[in-house]
Predict the 3D structure of the following.
Amino acid sequence: MNIQIFGKNKCFDTKKAQRWFKERGIKFQYVDILSKGLSRGEQNSVIAAVGGIDALIDQNAKDYPLIKYLLDDAKPDKLAECPNLYKTPIVRNGRLATVGYAPEVWKDWE
C-alpha cells in the first residue's frame, strides 16, 4: 500500500486523515498541496478515480468564484494556479483516490 495524503496544514479533515492512518500503523506520505500542488498526472489520476474534476473543488473556498463558471477544460489549469481551491484531504492509493475525509473507503484499502 502506497498512501499519499495531499492536504493543507490548517485543514481539520487533513489532520483527521493523518491520525486515522497513524492509528492503524499505515505509513503514508504527506504532501502540502499549497506549496507542492498536484502534478498533472496525479491530478488526472484523481479526477478519474473520483468521477470528475468538480469533486476536487472546494465550494466553500473564498476563491471559489474564480473557478465556478469556467469550462471543465479550464478548471485543471485554475486548480494548478490556485491550489487553495482543492478540497482536502486528497488521499491516493495507487489508482484509487478519495477527496475529503472518507474512512469508510480507506478501511477497504487495508
Summary: The radius of gyration is 13 Å. Residues 45 and 95 are 6 Å apart (CA to CA).
